[in-house]
Specification:
The chain is an alpha+beta fold and 367 residues long. The chain folds into five domains: 1-35; 38-140, Sandwich (Immunoglobulin-like); 148-244, Immunoglobulin-like (Sandwich), CATH 2.60.40; 260-304, no CATH class; 305-367, Roll (SH3 type barrels). It has three helices and 24 strands. It has helices at residues 2-35, 261-283, 290-303; strands at 38-44, 49-50, 54-63, 70-76, 81-83, 89-93, 96-105, 114-120, 130-132, 139-140, 148-153, 155-165, 170-180, 194-202, 206-216, 221-228, 233-240, 243-244, 308-311, 316-318, 327-330, 335-343, 346-350, 356-360. Strand 6 (89-93) and strand 7 form a beta hairpin. The termini are far apart.
């Protein structure tokens, strides 16, 4: 009898314990389910992406919590992509958030990141994060022409350009270009040994570059192509090579312009000088000689020959007067070079080989 009673008590205790733990587990599951307040889904994924293309992915997010500050994201576990921004562009419609992320396809084997979303509130409530698993993308590669400039964009246009003599065998072409929805930093001309981006600004939405290329003097037309996403085709861009006599090359003067402004100013000064001289001869009053001083002084300054300036040893000579610009020569000794002009912080000089370059003012000899 005692044995039966012991077995009955043991069975009762076991059933009670299992019931307790089951209740605790169910309570935990319910609590975890209650803590999930964000629901994520893909609103828009491109069906096809070109390698090198800037593309977007939009996530549709629903929060069951009404009062919150923000929804933050963490991106991880992606491949073959460059993330342009982990902070999305947001659009809200009714109770949904539409968050758009931008990427660049770098490889044919590409996968979207896992998007982990978290609700940010001004209270001490803690909520579970929600994970949206990244999907594999359909990436294709172009079969470009030989003169492809490695740019895929909605549009690409030349803003300004200028061609100057570089040396006895080469010209230098410098241009400013603008592109929309592109990785403009990938711009590169095929078959050009010496080239580069001097400056780049903006972002993938709209970007601008200042670009230079040293080309053979025999080239009469520089052409290249880019892939237009609207027309789904390669479009040609052509630059006629017209070498200007003036070798001035600055970021603010790249467009071919009329180089006769200084001659016009000189002609005006000569006209004023002649008029003052006629008035003096007519009136015979020496006070009118004062009118001759100003135009005469201006003419003297314009006609004065350029002076040599001293450049310290180890001075970098830049292709353009830009911060972090391309260095094409470094002086091995103290040199005296012909001054050609100046802008803020830089002096334009002519080298012994007739090349034109820019040096920083801090590298001019202090004697």
């Amino acid at each position: 009898m005692r044995l039966l009673l012991f077995l009955f008590l043991l069975l009762f205790y076991s059933l009670s314990a299992n019931s307790f733990f089951a209740t605790e587990e169910n309570s935990t599951l319910v609590q975890e389910e209650q803590q999930k307040v964000l629901y994520l889904s893909y609103e828009e994924i491109p069906k096809r992406v070109i390698k090198g293309e800037v593309f977007s992915v939009t996530i549709k997010t629903l929060s069951t919590v009404r009062d919150y500050i923000d929804v933050s994201y963490s991106l991880s576990n992606f491949r073959g992509l460059e993330v342009l921004s982990e902070i999305p562009e947001r659009r809200q419609s009714s109770k949904y958030l539409f968050d758009t992320f931008y990427f660049i396809a770098k490889s044919e084997n590409a996968k979207l990141p896992d998007f982990e979303a978290k609700l940010v509130t001004d209270t001490y409530d803690t909520y579970n994060t929600t994970l949206l698993t990244g999907e594999t993308l359909n990436i294709i590669s172009l079969n470009p022409r030989k003169n492809f400039a490695h740019v895929i964009a909605n549009s690409f246009e030349l803003m300004e350009y200028k061609t100057s003599s570089y040396d006895s065998e080469h010209n230098i072409v410098i241009f400013v270009a603008r592109a929309f929805n592109s990785d403009l930093g990938a711009f590169k001309l095929e078959g050009i040994e010496k080239q580069g981006i001097e400056s780049i600004s903006g972002d993938h939405v709209e970007a601008r570059i200042t670009y230079y290329a040293v080309i053979d003097k025999k080239i009469e037309n520089l052409s290249f192509s880019y892939f237009n996403l609207h027309t789904n085709d390669f479009l040609q861009v052509a630059l006629p090579i017209i070498v200007e006599e003036d070798s001035v090359v600055t970021q603010t003067d790249l467009k071919p312009t009329d180089q006769s402004k200084e001659q016009i100013k000189l002609a005006i000064a000569l006209g004023v000088l002649l008029l003052a001289l006629v008035i003096f001869i007519w009136r015979r009053k020496y006070i009118y000689l004062i009118l001759l001083i100003f135009p005469l002084a201006y003419i003297v300054v314009i006609m004065m020959p350029t002076k040599d300036i001293c450049i310290e040893k180890g001075t970098n000579i830049y292709l353009l007067p830009l911060k972090n610009g391309t260095i094409f020569e470094t002086t091995t000794k103290r040199m005296f070079l012909q001054k050609e002009g100046s802008i803020k912080g830089y002096m334009k000089v002519k080298l012994d080989n007739e090349k034109i370059g820019w040096v920083e003012n801090e590298n001019i000899c202090t004697y």
